[in-house]
Structure formats: structure tokens, C-alpha cells
Amino acid sequence: MLTIRNATLPDGSKRDVRIETDAGRISAIGSSLTESGEVVDATGKLLLPGAIDAHVHFRQPGFSHKETWETGSKSAAAGGVTTVVDQPNTNPPTVDGPSFDEKAELAARSYVDYGINGGVTPDWNPDELLDEPILALGEVFLADSTGKMGIEADLFRSAVERATDKYLVVTVHAENADLFDSDAKSRDDADAWSAYRTAEAESDAVERACEIGTELGARLHIAHTSTPEGIDAATEAGATCEVTPHHMFLSRDDLDELGTFGRMNPPLRSEERREEVFARVADGTVDMIATDHAPHTREEKDAGIWDAPSGVPGVETMLPLLLEEARKDNLSYERVADLTARTPSKVFGLPRKGRIEEGRMADLVLVDPDATREIRAEDLHTKCDWTPFEGWTGVFPEVTMVRGNVVFEDGEFGEQIGENVRA
């Protein structure tokens, strides 16, 4: 038994939280619980539900030089993320029974809980894949990205139909390659990638995907929406959507400094669009923040704009960046909890996670809301050893708990206890 005494919850109330550590769940919440077992004094500290990052690429199998389940989940735990959802574009891609089993064996080394998404390629085996304990179908790619898994419209429709029969959410990477601007290929500056993969390519693909989703009665989730137009199209169609920290905080104005380290799919947008995306995050339009944590080595990224791979790390800095925004009153702590925990648990069907309530799993993060620190790559735990947020300010966790087990505390890690949330 563990009692966290006098913690401030996201709504500003001060409560004691009792945890049955053997069961991994919250057993009581109150203002003056009788002390039982170990007691932690959390006076002046903020207690948050552990973040659920619904979009990570931990790179195993196939690309362990970029990241591993061990290093990626350490990064997650140190950033207050207690559940991650890994996407299928690994090597082999997670598109059938054997590839799922291979990834599941590697994921058992995780420090945090996880879901494994199944992917779609022309060679996928839906009968095998959909019988595995996958969290969702997707990231289904409507344009090529890392892993070359872009598919045609007919296969997308078929995949959505099969997933809907299984009551699975379909996560969609929405870009229409027909609307990419080929004229940008004559350029070699860092902004050329943003000019090439146009904002219109995203909004058009969101609309097309949602038309199919509505027709089939599917549960569609749009990944990494980077434009206000894409967010609005998803919302109007009744789909859910996520925004990444890099699309929320960075814009094309930052590319002179970031260079090819700022190349990702979809790319950074104009400062005006970024501000509109941030506003939709703040006002409740956007459902969740997910990182699209997509690490590559420094050597890989240090190339020309047409040769560098797309993607940036972010699982460890998501919650610290959002908490800094809350500290500055640009977001409320309630909104941060909604974006990172409550809504992801609802969208992806994780009823025991995402909230600080009696009976829920004790996935918890304790922070000092006024203890800021500068983000430095050398202090982070991702294997790729760099961050697009170098020099930014964040509020980092002191303690991260998964099912009542301390997996991170004051720079030290606990045991690798991660479990598949669907198993």
C-alpha cells in the first residue's frame, strides 16, 4: 500500500491518493485518508494521470541503431509517458502474425505499457493480423513515409472495412501525393520539403479518408494533423485527430536553424497555420497530443533535404513542453490531462487508464509545476541523441509510476514491467 499525501490534481483540488501496489490500482481518493503503508508527501506537487502517447516509432525490429524498445521506453518513462502505441513501419512491417509476434517479443523489454498497431501493405495478411492483440489498425499510410508503406484507395477502403468488422480504430496518415508540388524539387534549401508536401495535400486526404470512413461506419483517427484545415475536416466528419508537439510549437520559420533536422511527414507549416493549430489545441477542438516519436541518427539527418529521412524524436519532451505552457497559463492543467491521458484512453478503448479515479490503474506522474529546466539532448534518453527542442524550457517529472510501480524517479529507472494493453 502507498499513500500520496496532499497532491494537487489537474483541477486544482488537493487530495490524498491511495494505491494498492500489489494490484496496481488506485483504491481511494480523499482529502484526509488514514495513513497506510508507505507515505509520500506531495505538498506543492502536481499529480497527473500518466500520459498515453498514441503514436511512437520505437524502430524495432529492423532499425535498432535508431531506437530500441528499451531506450524508447526509458525516454517515455522519463517524460511522464506510461503507455505508448507503436506503429507498424518497422522491418519487417507489422502486417501479419509472425511480424506481430516478433515485435511483441521485443516489446516485452519496455519500461512502460504499450500497444502494438497493425499495418497495411499490398502483402498484408488481415486474417492473421486481425486475430492478434493489436491496439488499432494503422498508421495506414495514404502517402509514402519512412518504410514505404503508402497504399492505394481501393486497398484503404478494404482495410477500413476489415478493421470496422473487428471494431478497431483506424489511424490514418493523411496526405495526397497527387497534390505534392513537384516544382519544389528544384530547390535544395531546408524549406523545400514543406513547399513540396503541401498543406492542401493533407486536408484533401483527410476529407477523402473521412468520406470512406463515414460510408463504412468506421472509427477513424487522423494522425499528426499539421494544418487547421486538416483538423477542421476531421472534426466536421466526426473523426478524432492528434497534433504533435513539433507541429504545435515549430513552424517553417524555424527551418533556417533546424535544417534537415526539421524534416518530417507531414512537414512544418507556416507560422500562421501553426498559431491556428495551437489555438485549436487550446480550445478543445483537437482530441489529443501524440508525438510521432520518429528517431533517426544525427548522421542520417545530416544530409541534403531530399536525402535526409523524415522524423524527429519527441516522446520524452511532450509532457514537459505542455506543462511549461500550463505554467505560463497558455493551457490549463486540466486541458493537458485531457490531451495526453483522458481522451487517448477513451478513443483507443483503455478504460483502466487515463484518469486519477478509484479503480483505475495507478499510472501516475508527480511533478513540481514550478521546477523548470532547459531541454538538452545530453539529458534525454532516446538513442538518437538529439532533439528539435534543444534549449527550450520544460517541466519534467520527478516520479513516473506504471500500475503502481515506480519506473522512473529522480533520474533512476525501475524494472522493465511493460505489458501489452490488449493482451
Automatic annotation (TrEMBL):
Enzyme Commission number(s) from the entry: 3.5.2.3
The UniProt keywords, alphabetically, are: Hydrolase, Metal-binding, Pyrimidine biosynthesis, Zinc
Q: Where does substrate bind?
A: H57, F58, R59, N89, H296
Q: Which reaction does it catalyse?
A: (S)-dihydroorotate + H2O = N-carbamoyl-L-aspartate + H(+)
Q: Where is the active site?
A: D292
Pathway(s) annotated for this protein in UniProt? Pyrimidine metabolism; UMP biosynthesis via de novo pathway; (S)-dihydroorotate from bicarbonate: step 3/3
Could you give a single Gene Ontology term from the biological process aspect? purine nucleobase catabolic process
Q: Which family does it belong to?
A: Belongs to the metallo-dependent hydrolases superfamily. DHOase family. Class I DHOase subfamily.
Outline what the protein does.
Catalyzes the reversible cyclization of carbamoyl aspartate to dihydroorotate.
Q: What is this protein called?
A: Dihydroorotase
This chain's source organism reads: Haladaptatus paucihalophilus DX253
Gene designation = pyrC
